[in-house]
Each structure stands twice: as C-alpha cells, then as structure tokens.
Amino acid sequence: QVQLVESGGGLVQAGGSLRLSCAVSGNIFRDNGVAWYRQAPGKQRQLVAGITLTGTTRYGGSVKGRFTISRDNARNTVSLQMNSLRPDDTAVYYCNVGRNVITTPGDYWGQGTQVTVSS
C-alpha cells in the first residue's frame, strides 16, 4: 500500500520560514521522483518544486531563490525548505510521486498540509 505522509505546515508571519516533509512508503520512493504542488482557494494546483531520482530539480517561478527541495534516500523522505514566505504562498501543499514529476504530475498524492502566511 502506497502512503505519502506530509508534515510541517502551519501558520507563519510574512518573511518567516517553514519546512515541509513528505515520507513515502514502499518501494515507490526509490523508483520515482517527488514533487510539491500547492493549491490556493479558487486557483489551479501548481508545481512548487520537484526532484528526480538523480537529483535534478525544478522550481515554480514564484518560489525560485526562496524554496529548496531535497531528498533523503535513506529515509524515503523529501523536504521543502521555504524561506522568505509571503502571503501569496498561502495554500494547501501536496506531495506527489511519479516518474517524471518535474514535467508531469505523478499518480500518487498526499492528503495535503495547510500553509498560511500572515501579512
């Protein structure tokens, strides 16, 4: 059974930082890339950052230079370090796993974790 467990969301003031983690069960982690998407109310889900098996990364335009994605293959975990947070970063953040996550969403999704940035 595939499980994606997200953690680390919460409320933070503008300019602050949060770190999200996604723990991935089973063998799918070692065979796939992992990405973070986010969805704000009334908006489409958008790619925040993705990392492939080999460590290639891709970031959404609005987070470049502020967010960093990394993977820990020993712990089957991907983390998203978010710095210099802004109110427009407020959204539900979803972990996603798939073969080509930096170009196309994969088949596996986490339950989502809320990030709220106050001004």
User: Can you write the helix and strand succession as a string?
Assistant: EEEHEEEEEEEE
Tally the helices: 1
- How large a portion of the residues is in β-strands, by DSSP E? over 45%
Low-confidence stretches: none
Q: Averaged pLDDT, please?
A: 95
Structural class: mainly beta
**SS elements, strand count:** 11
Q: Give the helix level as a range of percent.
A: under 10%
- Main pleated sheet: 7 strands, mixed
Give the overall form.
globular
- What value does the Rg take, in angstroms? 13 Å
Distance between the termini: 40 Å
What can you see in these coordinates?
The protein has 119 residues and is mostly beta strands. The chain is 3% helix and 50% strand. Strands 2, 4, 5, 6, 9, 10 and 11 form a 7-stranded mixed β-sheet that branches. Strands 1-3-8-7 form a 4-stranded antiparallel β-sheet, with no helix packed on it. It is globular and about 40 Å long. The model has no long low-confidence stretch (mean pLDDT 95).
Throw out a few tags for this protein.
about 50% strand; globular; about 120 residues; mainly beta
